[in-house]
Amino acid sequence: MEEKTDPQDPVWKDLDRQGQLFMMGFDGPTVTPQIKTLIENHHIGSILLVAKNLKSAEETTKLCYELQKIAYDAGHPVPLLIGTDQENGGVNSLFDEIYIRQYPSAMGIAATGSTDLAFEVAKATAQEIAACGLNLIMGPCLDVLANARNQQMGVRTAGDDPHQVSAYGIAFMKGYKEAGVATLGKHFPSYGNLEFLGSALDVPIITESLEQLSLSALVPFRNAINQGLDSIMVGGVAMSSVGLNVMHACLSEQVVDGLLRHDLNFDGVVVSECLEMEALSHNIGVGGGTVMAVNAGCDIVLLCRAFSAQQEAIKGLKVGLENGTISMARVRNSLRRVLKMKAGYTSWEQALNPPGISLLSQLQPSHTALSTKAYNSSITLVRDKTHLIPLSNLVEPEEEICLLTPLVKPLAASAASRAISESANAHSPEPAWERTSSVMSGERVFRELGRSLARQRNGRVLHTSYTANGVRPMHETLINRASAVIIVTADANRNIYQQGFTKHVAMICNMQFTAGGEKKEKPLIVVSVSSPYDFAFDSSIGTYICTYDFTETALYSLVKVLYGELTPTGVLPGTISESQKLHQTRQHWLVEAFNEERDANALDNLIKLIVDDMPPSQRSELSGASSNTFLLHNQEVIEAHFVVRNSSTHALYGFCSTYFFKTTGTGTIGALFVDPSRRKLSIGHSLHNRAIRTLLQREEAKRFSLGTRLPNIYLGIPMPHTVEKRRLRAWFANLGWNTALSRTIYSMVARNLSSWSTPEGMAKSLQSAGGAAEFDLVYGWDYAGPILDHVKTSNRQGLLEVYKLALSDPSACGIIRAKRPDDKAIVGTVVLYNQQSRLAEFVPAMRDLDEMTGGISSPVISPSVADYSTLLQGLILLGMKQIKKQGANAVYLDYMDGDGNVDVLKSIGFDVVSDFEEVSCDASTFTMLQPSVYGEGTSLLGKGAAVEKKFTAGRSYHVS
């Protein structure tokens, strides 16, 4: 890359100022004489703070201020860059039980399936450290786990799919930047496939060729660079392949200047791996390594803690400059990059006034909620062959559960780890609560899990640890006593004894017998609390859950999953998820056409089961519906409804309704739901398969949609604003629906009409609308021609049929028209109806209201209207006045677009009852997908079935 020689302030010509090219650390939570000397005398520009430096949020804020004040008093022209590792999960340098929240690791966030959530978590993380005075986060990790089962990186990265790692890495990066913190991608070119040769003096080696790296490991770095990554850490690993022989990547001009700068076009700050790493310092020496790093193209050289090594590095740089080994042009280029990055993220005003606890206390409530949401969304149920989850269905309160956990090193981010160290010198070998609670014995790092399990069920939990010594008599005794066994593993692929222990316990559980001598398998649940690869491919472990972390928050979410308070929605990351999909069991259910005489009562019973399964706080769209609701008996609508049923008991296990609207050439799936006790069995997939096949048989089909106005039950995918929405959207997306192309549709209600009046200010809006249009209310088929011609300007399915129903029922329905004053052309219409109308039969939610209610439905406004919102207000307000005049006390408003209209309608007096995502696509989309989606044994069909296993329903479509 061509070196730039931008003019710089003369102050930077002083060789002592070249300390800007170093990042250095120190020991302890307070400023040491050594770091003070480095800042004052050598003007080092960046500080790395690690867990040993950071005791609490308050003390970290104080420490950062003191470091910046020393730099300011020493005449530094710009503030220090102060960075830390805050990756979440198991890698957090800053922990504070009150003010700093725990969030899932990168892989845990990837398991949520949401890059939006990744952005929010990253932003919250950066806000917290920024409040304490830190301005650089050592992240995101952009490593791709090319050899995922045996790598040290583990859950620190999003997985083994380079594009998924890229997507989440960029989301993290953008979140950090949004919070005003500089970003550092690591570890270039990748730590995802290292060969470890044993000795600390042996350097881990990347054996992939540049071509292989370019196709996989470099993808996240390339994409992050294009999106504005501020800096990159280059590792100290060796590289050995054809055309590439590098002892340490960060010291290689071929890697830094060639691969990173020239090939990937990166002009941000390059930070070296710590030159104190034993292999590097032993082979080359810190002074020589510094010269090599700078000449290779590194802008900042990292030295973590040893004062002697730091002095040697500074001396090496000065000697290199004095004897011409390092050119001043090279230094000026590095200074330019470092100062540019600092200018974007630091100022003396910020550096000397960190907000600290005052800001953190404001952030705490929302960040606590975000932490809970993230962990709840990450827990992944990989397999549950015999339906052991929730445990509360299997284990009675008086029965015992055996919890077996490995001896592992506590996480830095864990409050438990602090408690361990604080109680290390206590007289009792066990904390007081362990001597008195129902958890009989146990290894302390998982004591909170044992406590939560016991507290949640008010029962006994037999908790003990296991080691490489295998299954001991004590383990067998506890297993035999317990009614269910939970085994925790942590990186079992690298700790092989955990695999052996788990398989041995599985054998014991499989060989249990009843008092009568009959074989009875004991429920066994295996929980991986770190790498999901422990038993991902071992189908002999029938129930397998992954948490990705063993922080307290993660384990609390696990407990909620185990006891059925939380439905796990996480998905295994990367290609491991694709591999799992090939092993999923899919049942092909017999789907039959709905027969009204045979199935009507059974459908009523199925609807009741689903409504009863809803939490009291959630209103089901099916409340008030019956089998008749789905039957339109309309000559212009072709109906085809399907059931999965038990031919012996005649009970329905699932139902799907489809409609083909001849007037618009639109085929719709109007409802799809499954018996709550029979989800995860592919019933929903089988029904969807049959529905699409049927709709595709209509040669005149132009569009397909999820959700329909007629009947008015599901206007689209319901939006309960919980993890359910993501699960439903993903389920349909994996069946071929483009959920990204959706629009929000609302149903709303206004109550207390007897005391309602037009809000202040709305009267003027109505007058304004009146100036642009004339309104009238008409009844009956005599007015059909112009009204239907107007409605045809909208291609929305069901609208024309709604208007025809209203025109055919003049005693109970009317149409409000808005006409242009000049030519009397209709520019807007809306349907009015009451509870006795034929139309109301297809709006069960309206009939379910416990008071006299009128309905306003299906507004259609001409595209030529300049002020859409004002005309809409006029139509709705006139409709409300008319319904109030008829003695109704409530107004039900359905099929309302959400494009800016909801707030307007709320100001009139409406509240949202339900909201949906209406999803539409060209029929040709499914025509093209048909051979691969519905062909027997094809990969995409397997994909849908696998997703179906994970994305079960709680509300709405109740897919399974």
From TrEMBL:
Residues 19-340 form the Glycoside hydrolase family 3 N-terminal domain. One of its GO terms (molecular function) is hydrolase activity, hydrolyzing O-glycosyl compounds. SUPFAM superfamilies: (Trans)glycosidases, Acyl-CoA N-acyltransferases (Nat). It comes from the Eukaryota. GO terms for biological process: carbohydrate metabolic process; peptidoglycan turnover. Gene3D superfamilies: Glycoside hydrolase family 3 C-terminal domain, Glycoside hydrolase, family 3, N-terminal domain. Residues 640-712 form the N-acetyltransferase domain. The keyword Glycoprotein applies. Keywords: Glycoprotein, Glycosidase, Hydrolase. InterPro entries: Acyl_CoA_acyltransferase, GH, Glyco_hydro_3_C_sf, Glyco_hydro_3_N, Glyco_hydro_3_N_sf, GNAT_dom, NagZ_Beta-hexosaminidase. Pfam families: Acetyltransf_1, Glyco_hydro_3. Belongs to the glycosyl hydrolase 3 family. This is Glycoside hydrolase. It comes from Rhizodiscina lignyota.
